[in-house]
Amino acid sequence: MASDAEAIGNPWATIWTRPRATIRRIVETDVHYQVMFLAILSGAIVWLERRWSQPATTGAYPLIVVAAVIVGAIAGIVELYFNGMLLKWSGSVLGGIGNYAEVRAAIAWSRVPIIVAMAIGIASILLSDEGPPSALGDEIPGSGAAVVILQGLFAIWGFIVMLKCLGEVHRFSAWRALGSMMLLVVAGLLIGVVAILFVGGASKLMHPVFSV
Question: How do residues 14-34 score in pLDDT, each as one tens digit?
Answer without folding.
Answer: 999 999 999 999 999 999 999
